[in-house]
């Protein structure tokens, strides 16, 4: 399997995990949510997907501030967008940081 195929498989796995989190966000404990995000982080790190790593980091900070439940859904939308992004460079990471800033004000 080539690197692009591996990255596509990683994207598919991460998007499925994000969808699972979104469906259960009202019922997930903070610890379970952190575990799921850590799994996404590890996958993104393994495949060099910097935009995903940046969004996961920002989501970690939001959770540390006490955001939870429906407030997390907007973060998950941005995380999914980052997973779907073909670009993995620093400029893409900056674009997602800007998107978070605009979306979450």
Helix and strand arrangement:
Elements: H1 3-24, H2 30-46, H3 50-64, H4 70-84, H5 90-104
Helix pairs in contact: 1-2, 1-4, 2-3, 3-4, 3-5, 4-5
- Whole-number radius of gyration? 13 Å
Order of helices and strands: HHHHH
Weakly predicted, low-confidence segments: none
Overall pLDDT metric: 89
Estimate the global geometry from the Cα principal axes. Answer: globular
Can you give the helix content as a percent range?
Answer: over 70%
Structural class label: mainly alpha
Largest pleated sheet: none
Helix tally equals 5
Euclidean distance between termini CA atoms: 41 Å
Q: Could you give the count of β-strands?
A: 0
Report strand %: under 5%
Number of domains: 1
What does this structure look like?
The chain has helices spanning 3-24, 30-46, 50-64, 70-84, 90-104. It has five helices and no strands. The N and C termini lie far apart (41 Å). It has one domain. It is an all-alpha fold and 105 residues long. The model has no long low-confidence stretch (mean pLDDT 89).
Jot down its keywords.
mainly alpha; 105 residues
Describe, in short, the structure shown.
The chain is 80% helix and 0% strand. The chain is an all-alpha fold.
């Amino acid at each position: 399997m080539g690197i692009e195929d591996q990255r596509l498989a990683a994207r598919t796995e991460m998007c499925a995990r994000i969808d699972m989190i979104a469906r259960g966000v009202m019922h997930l404990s903070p610890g379970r949510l952190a575990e799921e995000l850590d799994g996404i982080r590890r996958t993104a790190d393994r495949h060099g997907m910097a935009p995903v790593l940046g969004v996961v980091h920002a989501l970690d900070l939001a959770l540390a501030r006490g955001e939870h439940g429906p407030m997390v859904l907007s973060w998950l939308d941005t995380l999914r967008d980052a997973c779907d992004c073909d670009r993995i460079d620093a400029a893409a990471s900056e674009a997602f940081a800007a998107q978070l800033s605009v979306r979450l004000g």
